[in-house]
Amino acid sequence: MFDHGQPSYAEVNKDILSVMLETGPRYWMLLGTTMSVAVIFFFMPWFYQLIVGVGAAGMNRNAYWGTYLSNFIFWIGLSHSGTLLSAILHITNSPWRKSVYRSAEAMTLFSLMTAALFVMVHLGRVWFVHWSFPIPNQMGLWPNFRSPLMFDVMAITTYLTASSIFIYMGSVPDFAAVRDASTGTRRRLYTIFSFGWRGTAREWHTLGWAYTFFAVFVIPLAVSVHSIVSWDFALSIVPGLHHTIFAPYFVCGAIYSGTAGIVTVMYCLRKFLNFERYIGQVHLDNLGKLLLALSLIWSYINMLELFSSWYGGSSFELEALKFKLTGFYAPLYWEMILFCAFVPLLMFFRKFRWSWNKMLLISILINIGMLTERFIIVATSQPRKFLPNAFGFYFPSWIEISITIGSFAIFATLFLIFIKWVPAISIYEVKETLKPLRRDA
Amino acid sequence: MSISVLDALRPARKPALLGLVAVFGLLIGAWVHGKYFSDRSPVQPIEFSHKVHAADNEIPCQHCHIYADTTPVAGVPSVSKCIGCHKFLPSVRDQPEILKLMAFWENREPIPWIKVHDVPDFVHFTHKRHVKADLECQECHGPVETMDRITRVATMRMPWCVDCHTEKNVEHGRDCWTCHK
Amino acid sequence: MSKISRRDLLQYIGAGGIGAVGGVLYSESIERDVELIIPQVVPPEDYSPGIATWYNTVCNQCSAGCGISVRIREGKAKKIEGNPVHPVSQGRLCARGQSGLNVLYNPDRIREPLTNAGQRGTGNFYPISWDEVLTTIASRIGRLKIENNASRVRLLTGRVRGHLDELFAQFMGLLGSDHYQQYDFTYPSALKAANKISFGIDQLPYYDIKNADLLLSFGADYLGTWISPVHHSLAYGHMRQGRAGRRGKTVQVEPRMSLSGAAADEWVAARPGTEGLLALGIAHILVSDGHYNGSDRDQWSDVLQAYSPSAVSAETDISEGNIRQLAREFGTSKAALAIAGGATTAGTNAVASAVAVNALNHLAGNLGQPGGIIFNSDQAFSATPGTRQAGMQGILDLVEAMEAGEVDVLLVHDSNPIFSLPDGVGFRQALDKVPLIVALSSFRDETTEQADLILPTNTYLESWGDDVPDPGVGFPVASISQPVVTTLYDTLPVGDIILSLARQIGGELPMAMPWRTMEEFVKERWREEYAMRESGGADQDFEAFWQAALEAGVWGQPGVMTGDQIVPSSSSTIAAITNPASQFAGSETDYPLVLHPYLSASLLDGRGANLPWLQELPDPLTSVVYGSWAELNPATAEDLGIREGDVLEVETPAGSVKVPALIFPALRPGVVAMPIGQGHTSYGRYARNRGANPMDLVSMQIDDRSGDLAWAATRARVRNTGERLQIIKTDGITRTLGRQILGPENDHA
Amino acid sequence: MKWGSDLSTLVEKFRQYLKPGYYDEFDYHWTMTIDLDRCTGCEACVVACQAENNLPIVGEKRYARNREIKWIRIERYWEGEYPDVKMGFIPMLCQHCDDAPCEIACPVFATYHNQDGLNTQIYNRCIGTRTCAVYCPYEVRYFNWFTYTWDEPLEQQLNPDVTVREKGVMEKCTFCIQRIRLAKDNAKDDDRRRVRDGEVVPACVQSCPTEAMAFGDSNDPEAKVSKMMKDPRAYTVLEELNTTPSIVYLKKAHAES
After folding, report:
1. Which residues of chain C are within 8 Å of residue B39 when distances are taken between CB atoms?
2. What chains are in contact with C, requiring at least 3 Cβ pairs below 8 Å?
3. I need a surface site. Which of A21, A209, B86, D245 has the fewest CB within 10 A?
4. Which pLDDT value is given to residue D19?
């Protein structure tokens, strides 16, 4: 499974740790840019919006939910697969997972955080956001547990906690490795991170057991999270959102975009951190197959959704459908269909599955498609509700657009910081996959 | 080289302790402020003493706060009201505070009293209902007749209201629209 | 645990200290800022904080004269509602009336006397003291008076009724000038002229819509803008559902569906200008089919001979069957009533049309009957309101006089001819010939901008006065208007201004007008009326009566409305029946379309344009806010290739304006309709430079029989400029798409 | 073993839970009837509401972007084409649904059903998720996109009985809660347990020049609204959504012949 011959244990350590221990100027430049982009495109517009009010965004009487919420879903979606995939693959212990999962889980973590940020941006009075947490308070008021938004709060916080523990636990031995490879303050830091890991048989055993336990525990969580996010919409009676198919639709979509995201990240790791040795054809191939399968499921559910709208025959649903397929945002819709349903079919052919560049392109297209899918959900259903006289139109303002761009920078920043602090590839698990060396070697 | 976490943590002890002390300081500071620097008993433009009026001279509250039982606001007495009595009280006429009062009256200026019991604008409290429910003024305003300078004894915050409504089980008294509208 | 060194100790103390300070600062920062309680120095006796008091007065937003009561809290006006005991409004009030608060608290009110320091029309004004400004005017007028040139003083007001009207009249009379005119664009002069012809009365009768079974309205938007909308609305509601098992029917004849048209069961879009003809056609059938058989049947049939259904149908473009059916319903229904207004009475044949409609009422025999036309035999103060309405002819005379330099001082009060008259009148230019223009106004409208001296007047909510509704309600009624709030700025009630002028001018004026304020004057007059009606009513009785009247805001003698009615004979009407076709300015070839200006339901003739609530009130039928538009029938628009939002250049012989197009389904093809009210060049921040004024398009044409402006007799053409402009409106899609919004399909009713 | 009993109590709890606002029956059940045969679409009610409830003057730009705030609005629907074209007006305001979609949406109970069958909106509790507005099928919830201001001295008109809302807060028709409270207050003053029919009159109902609207307690069979609701023309908008609105419309009647 190694393209360029199997490395020795020492080499593994060296390769992976070098990323952290010696940093070139390129890294700092990159970090600097992403950070400044994040500030300029995300935080400054947000600050402005906090001053003048949500009116700074393009939302109006016809669409109280806008780009912010659609981005929120997108990032939640991206967060899937990361942990989920690694957990499933861990249980079905498929070896090719091992060099991929660490960064995949990191992706989960950071996109979740970005998503949470979007909730804040969306709120009208974010300074009271703590009211939506069940904290005992002076006023003796509790949040409304019937509200899907409350479900969200619960689900997301749980998922965030669980997956951060999961990723942390997985990297304890690697922290130890870093500790041993470093000196001074960093060493002290990693001593703390690694909880004084020695690598005794007992520790290994406990870790293995706990890790598997969490893997099992995380899988249903991941599924629940996006189901619940979907209920934000499905629990409304708005035509175009009021579908029972929404939960699986969202989950599948989430994993889909997530997996695509992983491919993108893999590509970057491989390219910029020279992990060619560890991230090879086999990963690409497997991910490709997975993507293909997901795309098929996704297309199927999509058709189902259209069908149930049409077959239901309610004038409300039909109107919403008509607007979606032929209305102002129809081009976006068809663009989504193209990118998410047809482009992936190319992966039936090996020469696509095996080419990093082609796969990168496909994965990015898929995620663009998914981004628009989320946008279409909010932008086409709300302006076509029940009373024709209140029909309207929604178009995002420049603030929303720039904040959307900024969110990617935030994600990148977090990820860059991550690869600096945590081994981007699980050292010990990679080692597990190495063929045992002969004594005389 | 040791790999014990404790050893690694040792250098962090000092800053941590400092932080702890600072937090304590913070709490103490907040408490001190609440006790001594808060607006619970502001200095009024005229050192009006409820003790003298309500206790020593046994003037009933509503003799001056005439609107309390008929309108949402209790109302502070008009300047003319004060004068109405004080022009017949030569004994205290040349006391400094009374002179201030007279000054206001001569210039036909209202007295800019500072609000002690203040609630946000989105709270629509009505004195009338509470007075008509036979609540003693003191139940909310404290032993006013013992105060030379009025001090707010109750927090005047929502839990304080709700608690009372609950224990007196006011009919629908916990419906938000009882006070917020 | 090692010992703590001094150094450490200091550090700990430092940390603690910083923390403490931080704590104090933090809690200081989250503390609510101090508020003050400002007591009254001496409280007014009817004042109690937190309790609302209601004062009754009269609405002045249109000429209906509704009684209103204003809600006052802590001395500020909070809300206007109809006065429940007032016979006109009966506790209800329209959007315009309720927006009176925007008049009172308008940010653009004139807050002190102003002078333009000799540079007229520049729009620069400078504060000046009341004494100075009043002396200036008084001396100027006084001199003229001494020189016996008082006729060179002219007074032009808006619609003024009650004793303010009398005050003006007295003032001018004593000066020796008989040039006191009123001009109100919305005043139904033609209708009045027609009624004089048919009924021989010089006042508007009471139209008893309430008890009618069939209301046939020719262009009169009685629910929106015509005469007394609130009262008519009340009547309408009762007529529709107020009488068990007896639902009145309404038919509306007009080229562009108005509010009343939308409410009507049938909307008949006759060819513009032929409404009167249609009325005659119906009359013809009424007589010929024997629905009418009075003694004078033959005279009727003679005079109506010419108007056979076929002929009328050809002219009006209404199918013969439709006409016959209308006639049948009109003839058979128990109480049928026909009214004329709006564009029908704004053609060059205005009076003829109105007379024709009166003919219908004659034939229906509803004169003096419930559900018909009722004459106000007895008016309070035996007032005959509106007699000083100049009409267009009067204005033209005034303009002529000004041009001829026969006017030295022009007093303008609450009237805005520059805005509400076509440019063809040349009022604006004529003003240049007038040495001194004095405006008595609360706002800087187009006419006020031209003034040399601006005397800021109180709004009607700050003034004393009284009013006799016109038309009356069938029995004598008079309402008192009293200030409901203390005057906001350095302004005066217009009555007081006139009185103080009278004092300063001297001569016999101070003698004849001894009252110091309008209040005194009004009370005086009421005392006399009281003495007259309650024969020998003692003074203390009057004081009681006065207090009661103030409280009620209105005095009236409800009686049998239809009692002792003199039913005028039909002869005069018959004699007056003619049918001149309305003469449209502009040839049909050059100007294929007919321009149909109509009063905006919210801004009326533009006087409401400075009120934010009205600017933000969606137009009832198009839901457009802010700005104006030109309506086209979908078919017409298609022929011209025009979509909604295309900026059109509407052009008439009189001029041209640019407005965005709006496709309007309920508009007769070949007609372009525009709302009046926008297009102010001044008049405050909410009105200035917004939309276009259709009066710029109206060519100067006069209906010679009433001397009134024929503002609906102009032809127009439209050109698509290619520019686009977003029409701001609240409507999304205005079709139900088969959804059960207006009620289930299966019809219970 | 008392599984059975536990279960039954659970089921009972759940049923309680499903009840609107957890109330078995309402103390009052405020209801409004609107007779579309009387309604002329004159929009007096719109201004009345604006005056009574401190609705902001949003300005032209914001209006152009559909940010207006009108707790009651008139919706227009054309039927047919020229010349047989008809216009149908329908006043649209918060329907105070007994099974309100918006109420489950709010995470902080800023909107909930109270004991009088009213759908409340507590401005100072709202955090502005705007979910309620998305869920509302009648689109009668309006959001404060900005902190609106009044040009001096227009602010002197503001009704002191109604809170002026700040940016980021949802707002909607309250059936003029301040007037309801006042009526109850007066009732208490002369020791009446209940408010008389016709004592509570929301601003829109009060102003209506054609007396098309009626307001009252439909729990009281003698109340005017209760009578109106029995009219064969009575219906509720979007009945099929089962929101059980508290506003009953009376269909426009058609002229016979």
Report:
1. 31-32, 34
2. A, B, D
3. A209
4. 59
What was the pLDDT predicted at C647?
Answer: 96
The C-side interface with B (CB below 8 A) comprises 8, 11-12, 15-28, 31-32, 34-43, 48-51
The pLDDT score that the predictor gives to residue C30 is 78
Instruction: Tell me, yes or no, whether A2 lies in a domain.
Output: no
Contacts of D19 (CB under 8 A, 6+ apart): none
Task: Tell me the three-class secondary structure of C107-126, residue by residue.
Answer: CCECCCCEECCCCCCCCCCE
Closest among D66, A390, D82, A387 to C664, alpha carbons compared: D82
Coil, strand or helix at D215: strand
Q: What average pLDDT does this structure show over C174-185? A: 90
Higher-confidence residue of C732 and C748: namely C732
pLDDT at D256: 67
For residue B93, the number of C-alpha atoms closer than 13 Å in the C-beta half-sphere is 6
Q: Please give the residue of chain C at the shortest CA–CA distance from B76.
A: C39
| CATH number of domain containing A364 | 1.20.1630.10
ipTM reported for the complex surpasses 0.90: yes
- Report residue D187 CA to chain centroid gap: 23
Per CB-CB distance under 8 Å, the chain D contacts of C609 are none
Residue C396 and residue C385: Cα distance in Å, rounded? 22
CATH 3.10.180.10 fits D27-250, yes or no: no
Chain A nearest CA to B168, separation (Å): 17
Predicted TM-score (pTM) of this structure: 0.93
C735 in A contact zone (CB under 8 Å): yes
User: How is residue A184 written in tokens?
Assistant: 């001074």
Q: Is residue A4 part of a domain?
A: no
| Interface mutation target, options B36, B78, B123, chain C, most CBs of C under 10 Å | B78
Where does the pLDDT of residue C537 fall: very low under 50, low under 70, confident under 90, or very high at 90 and above? low
Q: How many structural domains is chain A composed of?
A: 1
C550-606 pLDDT, tens digit each: 999 998 877 655 556 677 888 888 888 888 888 899 999 999 999 999 999 999 999
Q: Where are the domains of chain D?
A: 27-250
Note whether D104 contacts A: Cβ–Cβ < 8 A: yes
Share of chain C above pLDDT 70, in %: 97
Tell me, yes or no, whether A234 lies in a domain. yes
Structural domains in chain C, sorted by start: 114-185+382-457+493-547 (3.40.50.740), 189-374 (3.40.228.10), 593-724 (2.40.40.20)
Residues 6+ apart with CB under 8 A from A326: none
Q: Is the pLDDT of residue A42 over 60?
A: yes
Q: Answer whether C492's CB lies under 8 Å from C474's CB.
A: no
A387, A393, A394, best to mutate vs chain C, most C CBs in 10 Å: A387
The residue whose two tokens read 């898929």 is A366
Q: Give domain status of residue A130, yes or no.
A: no
From chain B, the residues in CB contact with C32 under 8 A are: 39, 118, 120
Which structural domain, as residue segments, surrounds residue A315? 9-125+142-433
What is the pLDDT, as a whole number, of residue C522? 93
Count how many residues are written for chain C. 749
Residues of A in contact with D87 (CB under 8 A): none
Is residue B53 predicted with pLDDT exceeding 70?
Answer: yes
Q: What is the pLDDT of residue D2?
A: 53
Closest in A138, A139, A196 to B4, CB measured: A196
| CA separation for the pair C122, C116 (Å, rounded) | 8
Residue D165, helix vs strand vs coil: coil
Say yes or no for a CB contact (<8 Å) between D78 and C249.
no
